[in-house]
């Protein structure tokens, strides 16, 4: 039973595909860096040709955490907008292309300075380490380009609303607007520190930099950044997965509600990355810890919705025992299985996150490789596997090709390789972190310390897991290349779920954007005004730049 | 907005656990005084070496089985007041750590203990640690500080003097 398939407009498809190509190129380059890093840290290999470990680490972080994610998300969201709120207008699409090229040029500039060894400052670029100004300018362009894309999406949504008075915006479009609003509000912080602090300072226009202010502005952005990655995964879970399995969206209004809660509680939380820092009163750290953990609520709502949707589907197929419905889920469909593994990884991932954010407990794991293990579960498993699972229908939908059975098989193998590799790598990172092994450090014996010797077996395990993950990257790239250029022509569906027939009508108040933004701003002012004023009033003398990099 | 009965139960259970958790963390912080390192003191980062107590790094006895450990960091070393970068601490001693950096941001971590804090130029970081177990502990930098970051370390020897 094939219905006529709703297609994303060809010109919009081209825009989305351009983003995908940059995203997967970044995955390839960043993946090579990751492989070399785990090999170096096992102690069994040294880097050739004057390549620095920290140069690789900078490239790995920038290309995967910033470039892969941002390009994939914006590409996916343009496609999602076009699919659910109608074909983009020529002007909106043009804005999309301007955003794309601004981001791509920015990426090229930043990558160039990392490769020439003048920007080994890691993706967090903590002052007073100082990179070549080009590194910061490139990053600023990436952010500005993403803003242009964001505004294009807002305009498109507003146009739909105008044409459909008295109706709620389509669920996926609504979620996209929440995510871009979150991104805009959050990236003001990183834009402020880059434009007002780093660029003038690295050009020599200003001599000194206020280190604590720069870190605070970075983390004002840095934590919402992770929700900017996570929310598109949630979009896929809420909107796409129900259709893939043949079920219905559990509740449209709950989905919107959880997104609004994420908008509220994503931003005023950056101090939980700064819990062990001097110069911030512990009272304000605790306030932000409380706000941080509020995101547990929409996460619980999401978990409930997912499993309620799965169970209802299984029962509608005749399952009657307590867990019998599990049997009816399409385990052999990569479009379901791959994101599903991502969901499962979020259980330990989220639990680890609660540990990291909990005020005192943070001291046990802060800056140990436990943290690296944590975000390789959340971003590099939950989010990325969901994105891979989405790419398997999105790319062929956009290219007019099909995700064949054979590619589906390969995608399942890919997910299994990824899961085992990650279990080994992330597991070893978590354990070694509890024993004190630091993150972001090249191989070291620490003066033949017996503690450091105990970490080495875990580092070897990380190399084994990391190598498997690199194989996983090669597999996914093979599939993506097939879907882009070689798979058989055909119609692949862009699955969009529907709500249950008897579902209550979604109330209209969800589109009260100004109200949501006022609440976010109030929360931000509440959490940041007093401690931020202290940082400026009681600032010690600033710091000159240091370029002791490699 | 309608909530399913099970969803109400699930959220009620989840939110109450969360509140209980935050209360425990809060009581631990504000009543028991277990706050993360958050010193408000500052120092001129260009004049660390001539500012007390950083003009004399190392371990000082300040009371009965109570010590102050002053540490000055720079890329890529810990100055703990000794040539061989080893500090000997009697077992069971309470040590008040006072540390800062002369240049970039460093991390201060004594592996295997809860002493773990950031050192930022211009700011003084403080933590108190009781060394109950004998043995050798590695003091290392856990925040990237440049090309020699992983070579930055010192040693804490906890010795039984009784």
Automatic annotation (TrEMBL), chain A:
The chain crosses the membrane at residues 21-40, 52-74, 94-115, 135-158, 170-199, 219-241, 253-271, 283-310, 336-355, 375-395, 415-435, 455-481, 513-536. It comes from the Bacteria. InterPro entries: Ba3-like_Oxidase_I, Cyt_c_oxase-like_su1_dom, Cyt_c_oxase-like_su1_sf, Cyt_C_Oxase_1, Cyt_c_Oxase_su1_BS. It holds the Pfam family COX1. SUPFAM superfamilies: Cytochrome c oxidase subunit I-like (SSF81442). It is a multi-pass membrane protein. Keywords: Electron transport, Heme, Iron, Membrane, Metal-binding, Respiratory chain, Transmembrane, Transmembrane helix, Transport. The keyword Transport applies. Residues 14-485 form the Cytochrome oxidase subunit I profile domain. It is found in: Membrane. Belongs to the heme-copper respiratory oxidase family. PANTHER family: CYTOCHROME C OXIDASE SUBUNIT 1, CYTOCHROME C OXIDASE SUBUNIT I. This is Cytochrome c oxidase (B(O/a)3-type) chain I. It comes from Bacillus badius.
UniProtKB/TrEMBL annotation, chain B:
It holds the Pfam family COX2. It is found in: Cell envelope. InterPro entries: Ba3_CcO_II_C, CcO_II-like_C, Copper_CuA, Cupredoxin, NosZ/Cyto_c_oxidase_sub2. Keywords: Copper, Metal-binding. Signal peptide: none annotated. The keyword Protein transport does not apply. Residues 64-162 form the Cytochrome oxidase subunit II copper A binding domain. CDD domains: ba3_CcO_II_C (cd13913). It catalyses: 4 Fe(II)-[cytochrome c] + O2 + 8 H(+)(in) = 4 Fe(III)-[cytochrome c] + 2 H2O + 4 H(+)(out). Its main location: other. The keyword Metal-binding applies. It comes from the Bacteria. Subunits I and II form the functional core of the enzyme complex. Electrons originating in cytochrome c are transferred via heme a and Cu(A) to the binuclear center formed by heme a3 and Cu(B). This is Cytochrome aa3 subunit 2. It comes from Bacillus badius. The lineage of its organism: Bacteria, Bacillati, Bacillota, Bacilli, Bacillales.
């Amino acid at each position: 039973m094939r219905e006529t398939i709703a297609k994303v407009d060809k010109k919009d498809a081209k825009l989305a595909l351009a983003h995908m190509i940059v995203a997967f190129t970044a995955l390839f380059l960043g993946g090579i860096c990751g492989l070399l890093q785990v090999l170096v840290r096992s102690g069994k290999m040294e880097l050739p040709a004057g390549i620095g470990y920290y140069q690789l680490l900078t490239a790995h972080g920038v290309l995967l955490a910033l470039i892969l994610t941002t390009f994939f998300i914006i590409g996916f969201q343009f496609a999602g907008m076009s699919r659910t709120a109608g074909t983009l207008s020529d002007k909106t699409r043009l804005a999309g292309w301007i955003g794309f090229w601004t981001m791509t040029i920015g990426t090229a500039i930043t990558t160039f300075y990392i490769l020439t060894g003048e920007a080994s400052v890691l993706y967090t670029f903590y002052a007073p380490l100082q990179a070549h100004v080009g590194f910061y300018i490139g990053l600023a362009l990436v952010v500005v380009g993403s803003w242009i894309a964001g505004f294009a999406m807002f305009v498109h949504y507003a146009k739909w609303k105008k044409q459909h008075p008295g109706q709620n915006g389509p669920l996926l479009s609504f979620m996209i607007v929440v995510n871009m609003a979150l991104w805009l509000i959050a990236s003001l912080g990183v834009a402020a520190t880059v434009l007002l602090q780093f660029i003038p300072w690295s050009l020599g226009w200003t001599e000194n930099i206020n280190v604590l202010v720069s870190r605070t502005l970075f983390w004002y952005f840095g934590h919402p950044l992770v929700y900017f990655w996570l929310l598109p995964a949630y979009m896929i879970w809420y909107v796409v997965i129900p259709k893939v399995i043949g079920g219905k969206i559990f509740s449209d209004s709950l989905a919107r509600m959880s997104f609004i809660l994420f908008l509220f509680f994503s931003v005023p939380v950056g101090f939980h990355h700064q819990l062990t820092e001097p110069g911030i009163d512990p009272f304000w750290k605790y306030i932000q810890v409380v706000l941080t953990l509020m995101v547990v609520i929409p996460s619980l709502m999401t978990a409930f919705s997912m499993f309620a949707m799965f169970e209802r589907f299984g029962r509608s197929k005749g399952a009657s025992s307590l867990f019998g419905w599990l049997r009816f889920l399409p385990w052999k469909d990569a479009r379901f299985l791959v994101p599903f593994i991502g969901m499962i990884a979020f259980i330990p991932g989220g639990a680890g996150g609660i540990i990291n954010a909990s005020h005192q407990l943070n001291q046990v794991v802060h800056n140990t490789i436990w943290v690296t293990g944590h975000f390789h579960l959340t971003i590099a498993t939950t989010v990325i596997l969901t994105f891979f699972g989405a790419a398997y229908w999105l790319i062929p939908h956009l290219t007019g090709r099909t995700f064949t059975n054979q590619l589906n098989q390969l995608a399942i193998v890919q997910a299994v390789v990824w899961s085992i590799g990650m279990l080994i790598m992330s597991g070893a990172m978590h354990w070694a972190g509890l024993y004190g092994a630091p993150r972001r450090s090249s191989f070291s014996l620490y003066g033949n310390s017996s503690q450091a010797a105990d970490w080495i077996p875990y580092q070897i395990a990380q190399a084994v897991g990391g190598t498997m993950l690199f194989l996983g990257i090669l597999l996914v790239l093979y599939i993506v290349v097939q879907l882009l250029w070689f798979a058989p022509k055909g119609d692949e569906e862009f699955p969009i779920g529907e709500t249950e027939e008897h579902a209550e009508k979604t109330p209209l108040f969800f589109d009260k954007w100004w109200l949501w933004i006022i609440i976010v701003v109030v929360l931000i002012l509440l959490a940041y005004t007093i401690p931020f004023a202290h940082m400026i009033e009681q600032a010690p003398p600033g710091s000159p730049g240091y370029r002791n990099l490699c | 907005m309608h909530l399913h009965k099970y969803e109400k139960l699930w959220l009620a259970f989840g939110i109450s656990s969360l509140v209980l958790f935050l209360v425990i963390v809060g009581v631990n912080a504000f009543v028991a005084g277990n706050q993360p390192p958050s010193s408000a003191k500052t120092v001129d980062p260009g004049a660390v070496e001539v500012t007390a107590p950083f003009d004399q790094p190392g371990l000082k006895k300040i009371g009965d089985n109570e010590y102050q450990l002053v540490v000055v960091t720079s890329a890529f070393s810990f100055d703990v007041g000794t040539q061989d970068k080893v500090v000997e601490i009697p077992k069971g001693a309470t040590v008040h750590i006072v540390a800062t950096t002369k240049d970039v941001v460093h991390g201060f971590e004594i592996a295997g203990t809860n002493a773990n804090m950031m050192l930022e130029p211009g700011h003084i970081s403080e933590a108190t640690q009781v060394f109950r177990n004998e043995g050798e502990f590695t003091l290392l930098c856990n925040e990237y500080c440049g090309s020699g970051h992983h070579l930055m370390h010192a040693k804490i020897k906890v010795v039984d003097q009784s």
